[in-house]
Amino acid sequence: MLGGRPGWGGGRAGAGRAAGLATGWPPAVQGRARASCETICGVTTQTEESPFLRACFRQPVPYTPVWFMRQAGRSLPEYRAARGKTSMLAACARPDLITEFTLQPLRRYPVDAAILFSDIVVPLKAAGVGIDIAPGVGPVVEQPLRAEQDLARLRTLQPDDVPFVTEAVTSLVAELGSTPLIGFAGGPFTLASYLVDGGPSKSFDRTKALMYGNPKLWTALLARLADITITFLQVQVAAGASAVQLFDSWAGTISPEDYRQSVLPHSRRIFEALAPSGVPRIHFGVGTSELLGLLGEAGADVVGVDWRIPLDEAARRVEPGKALQGNLDPAILLAPWEVVERRAREVLERGRTAEGHIFNLGHGVLPETDPDVLARLTDLVHTESVRLAEGAR
Ligand code: CP3
């Protein structure tokens, strides 16, 4: 599939450089870093004042900010119509479609942040991996990576490999005004799981076998993936993304000790590389109740929590100085509104025990979700969080 579609396999020379990566951070990014340390510099702009960014930095907010993982995508009829027959990865390489799909949910819901329409496998494909997203299945790899010689096929990513991301982020930031744009990438365990198992997996047997059985290759693979992720996130931030989220969705399948030893050092390097940009860094995984402290320790400003653990308990498990994001079970949105309302209030109440709280689902919006429920929920989060704060005074 490489090279056959517009956008993939090379791109225009210099587009990434134009984002300033070769010569260090561009003035806009340095300005953002300055503005986020407002006590030192006293510089603020509208985007920095957004409730979402303030909550990420554990600053007081007028109401609890909210956005939804997978707010763009198949739950929206306008998405299905505009996608038509275009394949998922072809869509991810077209700035016009990326921009349109990122904005679609914001036309329906007054969410407090947009998330770039892309996928965690986009940088892998851009780095030359034979990978596709099979409809209804997920990412599928042509030649799974299981031996030393396979690693040679995984080259690093250059900003010029993803000019369509730079172009889309630049146009989105202009359109979004004061609404922050969240950039994202896949975490090292999750990316490795697709490359090694070759596709979606329930038990990640081959991935874990490599992690336990060949630590040398595992370390080299995760180091390469971390390099790719760092470049992918830096491209997004350089083009104007105001925050980043690392989706290590499947890291919850390993024990805390194994996570600490075999994954955390790589995630830490990713977060450290993003630190100079000054943008908040969110770290999320599914089934990570036992890993929450470590997700924070890796260097995130915000820890994403799934629905398996209440937010007050999550707050106890994460070291001080972190905000939390989450954590309504996406399946609750399929229940009657009274249930959604009651459960969302509980999330807000428990979220008040965190130093900062961004309301979200515990995982992505399910395709069968009624968009009107998400619209009502967004309003409920805003109004109910104000009421709860007033009641507490
Ligand atoms: O949140 C957003 O609105 C931004 C868009 C986004 C997509 N993928 C678009 C997408 C984000 C943040 C992702 C991240 C992603 N991709 C993750 C981490 C988040 C998570 O869900 O845990 C993972 C594991 C992937 C890999 C992947 N890509 C899967 C498992 C699937 C679903 C397969 C299926 O069809 O059920 C995809 C495809 C995908 N990524 C779709 C979208 C909108 C659906 C494809 C389509 O519309 O045809």
What is the overall shape?
A: globular
Largest sheet: 7 strands, parallel
Report low-confidence residues grouped into runs of 5 or more. 1-6, 10-44
The proportion of residues in beta strands is 5-15%
Average of the residue pLDDT scores? 90
- State the total count of DSSP E strands: 9
Helix content: 40-55%
Which structural category do the helix and sheet elements fall into? Answer: alpha/beta
Strand order of the largest sheet: 1-4-5-6-7-8-9
- Element order: H for helix, E for strand: HHHHHHHEHEEHHEHHHEHHEHEHEHEH
Radius of gyration: 20 Å
Bound molecules: coproporphyrinogen III
Q: State the helix count.
A: 19
Q: What is the CA-CA span between the terminal residues?
A: 59 Å
Report on this model:
With 393 residues, the chain is an alpha/beta fold. The protein contains 19 helices and nine strands. The chain has a seven-stranded parallel beta sheet. Helix 18 links the parallel strand 8 and strand 9. Helix 11 crosses helix 12, helix 11 packs across helix 13 and helix 13 runs parallel beside helix 15. The relative contact order is 0.14. The N terminus is likely disordered. It binds coproporphyrinogen III. Coproporphyrinogen III (CP3) binds next to strand 3. Coproporphyrinogen III binds next to strand 3.
